[in-house]
Amino acid sequence: MYRFHSKEELVSWTNRMRYFRFVRAYGGHANDGDTLLAKFSFETTQKVSEFLQSLGVHEGKDIINNKNFTEDGFWRDLRNRDSIFLWITKEPPTVTLHVQNKENCYEVKEDEVVRAIEIESLLDEFTEKSPINPPKPSNLCFCKENYPEEFESK
């Protein structure tokens, strides 16, 4: 967990962000990178469509209403002109947002935390969502639920 970042840095990031959580890459042959992840559930696919539109992803309605659609991921520019990777699942209706380093997809840095916090202000504008915490059920997801001992006052 602490390959590039100290415990103190990850705790600080977690405390500054409301929805996003640091997720360490699986590594090895997966060729994935570290990311900041936020995941939300919705009562209906209509709410997913409205949520995507509130972020500036206007084709969200067409994606979610396609009868053959089950789940998919893609890069999109948000209203604030930031680029983010979205993973949408129709059943149950969920949206996962990934903030990654644009120059080096293998490492998250302070710039990505700042971007995530800015995106969270957009997320707050849409109230009909339920955050899923932790956003990834894995010990690779650094959050209070997975690492409570790291957040205890000493």
Question: How many domain modules?
Answer: 1
Please compute the radius of gyration using only Cα atoms. 16 Å
> How many helices in DSSP terms?
4
Q: Quick one: how many beta strands?
A: 7
Note the overall shape: globular
Distance between the termini: 21 Å
Sheet having the most strands: 7 strands, antiparallel
Low-confidence spans: pLDDT under 50, at least 5 residues? none
Question: What is the percentage of strand-forming residues?
Answer: 15-25%
Order of helices and strands: HEEHHEEEHEE
Q: What's the overall average pLDDT, rounded? A: 88
Structural class, from secondary structure content?
A: alpha+beta
Residue share in helix = 25-40%
Q: What secondary-structure arrangement, pairings included, does this model have?
A:
Layout (H helix, E strand, L loop, with lengths): L6 H10 L4 E3 L11 E7 L3 H11 L4 H6 L5 E7 L5 E7 L4 E6 L10 H15 L5 E2 L9 E2 L12
Antiparallel strand pairs: 1-2, 1-7, 2-5, 2-6, 3-4, 4-5
How would you portray this structure in words?
There is one protein chain. The protein is of the alpha+beta class and 154 residues long. The protein has one domain. It has helices spanning 7-16, 45-55, 60-65, 110-124; strands at 21-23, 35-41, 71-77, 83-89, 94-99, 130-131, 141-142. A hairpin with a 4-residue loop joins strand 4 and strand 5 (94-99).
In short:
This protein is α+β, with helices and mostly antiparallel strands.
For the structure shown, list the relevant keywords.
alpha+beta; globular; single chain; 154 residues; 4 helices; 7 strands
